[in-house]
Amino acid sequence: MVLGILKEQNFRRVSVTPSAAKKLGSMGINAIAESSAGENAGIKDQNYIENGIKIGTRQEVIAHSDIIVSICPVSDEEMMMMKKGAIYISMFAPYQNQEVVSHLANFNLNVVSMDMIPRTTLAQSMDILSSMASLSGYKAVLKAADHFNNMFPMMMTAAGTIPPTKLMVLGAGVAGLQAIATAKRLGAVVEAFDTRAAAKEEVMSLGAAFVEVEGASDDKGAGGYAVQQSEEYLSRQRALVQEKAMKSNIVIATAQVRGRKAPLLITEDTINNMKPGSVIVDLAASTGGNCAYTENNKTIIKNGVIIIGNSDLADELSGVSSNLFSNNIMNFLQIVVKEGVATLDMDNEIIKSALISKAN
Ligand code: NAD
Question: What's the fold here for domain 2-127+318-357?
Answer without folding.
Answer: Rossmann fold (3.40.50)
